[in-house]
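Objective 1.3, modelling of assemblies. Example input:
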Amino acid sequence: MSTAVSPLAPKSIPALPPIAGVRMATAEAGIRYAGRTDVLLAVFEPGTAVAGVFTRSRCPSAPVEWCRERLAGGSIRALVVNSGNANAFTGATGRQATKLTAELAARSLGCSESEIFLASTGVIGEPLDASKFGPVMDRLAADGEEGAWEAAARAIMTTDTFPKLATRTARIGDATVTINGIAKGAGMIAPDMATMLSFIATDAAIAPTALQAVLSDAVERSFNCVTIDGDTSTSDTLLAFATGKAVNEIENASDPALDGFKAAFEDLLIELAQLVARDGEGARKFVTVEVEGAESDLSARKIALSIANSPLVKTAIAGEDANWGRVVMAVGKAGEPADRDLLTIRFGDVRVAHLGARDPDYDEAVASAYMKNEEITVAVELGLGTGKARVWTCDLTEGYIAINADYRS
Amino acid sequence: MSTAVSPLAPKSIPALPPIAGVRMATAEAGIRYAGRTDVLLAVFEPGTAVAGVFTRSRCPSAPVEWCRERLAGGSIRALVVNSGNANAFTGATGRQATKLTAELAARSLGCSESEIFLASTGVIGEPLDASKFGPVMDRLAADGEEGAWEAAARAIMTTDTFPKLATRTARIGDATVTINGIAKGAGMIAPDMATMLSFIATDAAIAPTALQAVLSDAVERSFNCVTIDGDTSTSDTLLAFATGKAVNEIENASDPALDGFKAAFEDLLIELAQLVARDGEGARKFVTVEVEGAESDLSARKIALSIANSPLVKTAIAGEDANWGRVVMAVGKAGEPADRDLLTIRFGDVRVAHLGARDPDYDEAVASAYMKNEEITVAVELGLGTGKARVWTCDLTEGYIAINADYRS
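Predicted structure (tokens):
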């Protein structure tokens, strides 16, 4: 595991306020790591609503399947997250491990297994010894604190170089509600792929179906707009919890009273998604790709992701090369409607290509100076319609190769 | 440009026999490089059939558009290829450059522009000064030789580290025909992306529509099964020529007399496609990905390409790590039908995962020993149907980053 903090990390870690109805505790269960916490128990007061989105992988982890099966219930009493072992591609053993983990938590809390949610991140294909949670579960259940957000964010890290936390407030009617979120990102535990986990809690009172609608909508413009390398984990899990301690429940996602909440919720998800990109393996530059003028928003996002996932675009940015030819290539390969002779491309404010050819005023020195920035924006104007999208990624450096080509330890 | 020859290069360059009806010559037009040939003129006897397949990029180069427009004619008198400038994303200037190049060749040869085909590879977005072909064109037209295949393969190289040539013979009825091919691959000229060009000539007599059918079919199992980094050039061009000097013409691609020819043609394309992967930027290992048991051949190819394009799989292979977890990930992200609990994965003959979990007999030492080979096979059995596919790629190393993150010179 790398110990150097990403140069793109925020200058400070935000202190998150408590969320009424959520208590958290962490422990060292010794799943894989020594000398650090690797298990998180979050306990929610009865009546807490839950919503979730998961990896689209056809080969999901056992905890992803566990959560999917219990999401219809709409309520949650506890979340158990471990790092060090993803419990993915573990067959029947993996299903047994999820069941045992849920049993242990349910017993300690005196609730039903059906209200326990699970997430795991770490080594793939190795059996998860869930019995290791036994000796710590009672204490985790007893020790939970409302303000333990940073400890929670640290316990779920794998090769993340910094903990990822964000908070927002919003008005619902006369009440102020709080939204807290944590995430872990593109870390690597040999022999494993990156896993994105994120957990969002609010003291707002929102019915499960409404919370699911808010989450599913916001994720399209936040976590689904971030990419490190185009690879999709077996374990990606994003759960949202509404404890309902602050205000009266809102049943319907289209209730105008939720408008401010929705905006704050999406903004928080965007911040967390950007933090994931800022901690991409080997990242030295944070990259925003903006596409406008596409035939639809969906088309714009496909083109933006084609640019953001292109190894050639990402290596050019690592090399501080204003290589717009590769951006043209990535637009062309996306397979979406595009007219070469209408394309305009900018790096930051520098227009490098216009109407299908190099900008007549292109100045290599100006463009090269811009590329030395730590934050780079690549903007493409397609000139076809009103569809637009914005995605975030990082550059592709030797560091990515070094991290991912390491032998398993 | 790199000068070290890829460790995966073949031990020797094959000597190609002449193809009756094809004469080739090369020259130094000074497009970009100094001290090397950068233009190829191939002249075909009247009546030569032509077929072609091109990049699927929505932003194709000017020569690609030129060739597409002329392919319906079915006949070719000359092919002009230059390296050093791709004539891509060059707007109206680019179209003028293609027209001037064709005019110069047509004048020297006394034929129609409509029978001149063009290909360019190199810098993108810079105007191609086609007038530089003027001083050399008459000599190229006069000097053509039937056996100049290696010189031709060298003139079209960019950062290829070795010329790529292959030859086959086949029986058509009582006659023996020859098929020669050259290709250039994943080379890089800052600020450009890789371009794949390949040209295949035979003395067989095959009508243009039949030749096109043979080509389009064979390309699916050869060049469309090779990937370096998933990025698609603006300029990919594969043209096939049949001079008809050896035998009577075959009109129909389904004529059984063509069976042997088709097999030899596809085999030659596979060899060239593999040579391209062997010269992938920074490549140290040649990788074959085999997928069986998919619901269809198309589904199998999508899964195979998902594996072959995964940066995490490719870096693991670079690190000689038998990281089957990343193969599971790549299967899962392909979006094709797959059942995790039926998956079997092998590295070479080493079964590492079976029926959705680590193989009970898995031996890390045996798997690690296999991964030290220069040629690696990753085989996935999905257990769903009879669909299968095989694709070729290379590993992803620091060398790829170093080559592609270089500043433009």
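Chain A touches chain B through 74 residues (CB under 8 Å).
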